[in-house]
UniProtKB/TrEMBL annotation:
GO molecular function: catalytic activity; iron-sulfur cluster binding; metal ion binding
Entry protein name: Radical SAM protein
Coiled coil ranges: none
Keywords, in A-Z order: Iron, Iron-sulfur, Metal-binding, S-adenosyl-L-methionine
Length: 352
């Protein structure tokens, strides 16, 4: 009997992962190897959500055949073929594989298929860490328990938007989508409860229309709930309602990276963040004795260990938003200056 091309038997691979596994030809600029194999579910009837920034959205012209997400191509592959390629390459330093991420669409089958994909990966003898990227609209606590049993070791809730206001404008009823802000907040707590503090987190996109204060508020909230923070920089996708929206300026993103790092390392109180009346972060009261070497990781790719996502936030000819390797002191100081935070810049210039 002919089987339908659909998850769990078929998955999309990020183009970087597709190259690492040898499905697509190509080389990585600056040798920035993609260390995580990013998988995304595929269904002939597509994603049921209609997020205004996403190439997988229900009302995007190409529908389920749209092959882009966070700007990069996602070729469709058999899961069995993907597993075989990963087995051949795991442990080989030429490929540097560290993690697999099983990403969901908003679909009634998403949770059960994530469990099945994870189970098949583990049963094949693959030892890489596995992250689950979930949508709480269709994934609940009992699903998370089964994902962990199947072999997942980390989970992220793809909340994306920094506040209820932005969520409704980009992911909720205002854009004819069914996602619910309160359900996503509940999903964060469920993820932490099942996987444990530090093993659960959120995905947050900077540039969807939030104020900097809103972004810092959700980061602070997530951290107090025991969730880690994974930052992305918005980049417009062709064919979506937000295709003409400009990305957040580099200085905004650098400020959010600094805030995330300081929050996650418990180095400041919320009162250390100084905002103007428009919600712009205008300065940070830093703790004493921080060095440039200590703060340099703030500008690296954040999230699950072993996930570097090169060029997922920008084109290869653009400056990295998330630096996929440990930055030099000069690179770190440049990023600090890009933040345009007066006392922060002065603080680290004095340490030169």
């Amino acid at each position: 009997m002919l089987r339908m091309v659909s998850s769990p038997d078929w998955v999309r691979l990020s183009f970087g992962a597709d190259m690492v596994l040898g499905f697509s030809p190509g080389i990585f600029l600056h040798n920035a190897l993609n260390t995580t194999i990013n998988l995304l579910q595929y269904y002939p009837d597509g994603c049921k959500a209609n997020c205004s920034y996403c190439g997988q959205a229900r009302e995007v012209a190409q529908g389920p055949e749209c092959k882009t997400l966070i700007r990069v191509e996602w070729p469709l592959r058999r899961l069995d073929d993907v597993i075989k390629k990963i087995k051949e390459r795991q442990g080989d330093p030429r490929y540097g594989l560290q993690r697999i991420c099983v990403g969901q669409l908003a679909h009634p089958r998403a949770a059960q298929d994530s469990i099945e994909i994870t189970r098949r990966i583990r049963e094949a003898g693959i030892e890489l860490s596995i992250s689950e990227l979930i949508t709480p609209t269709y994934t609940f606590k009992h699903h998370l328990i089964e994902m962990k049993k199947a072999g997942g070791d980390m989970v992220d809730v793809a909340i994306d938007a920094a506040s209820k206001r932005v969520f409704e404008e980009t992911r909720g009823k205002k854009v004819r989508s069914m996602h619910n802000w309160e359900r996503y907040l509940q999903g964060i707590d469920e993820a932490v409860e099942v996987f444990g503090k530090g093993n659960a987190g959120i995905h947050l996109i900077i540039g969807l229309g939030e104020t900097e204060k809103e972004a810092i508020d959700i980061m602070w909230y997530a951290h107090t709930r025991g969730a880690k923070i994974t930052l992305f920089a918005f980049y417009p996708e062709q064919g979506t309602p937000m295709e003409k929206v400009k990305p957040a300026p580099v200085n905004v993103y650098r400020r959010m990276q600094l805030a995330r790092w300081l929050i996650e390392n418990d180095l400041i109180d919320y009162s250390a963040f100084k905002f103007n009346d428009d919600g712009v972060l205008i300065d940070i009261d830093l703790p004493p004795d921080l060095t440039i070497d200590e703060i340099a990781p703030a500008f690296m790719t954040s999230g699950c260990p072993g996930c570097n996502r090169p060029y997922s936030n920008e084109r290869p000819n653009m400056e990295f938003r998330n630096i996929p390797w440990y930055p030099s002191r000069d690179k770190a100081l440049k990023a600090i200056k890009q933040s345009k935070l007066p006392s922060v810049i002065k603080y680290f210039e004095q340490k030169q």
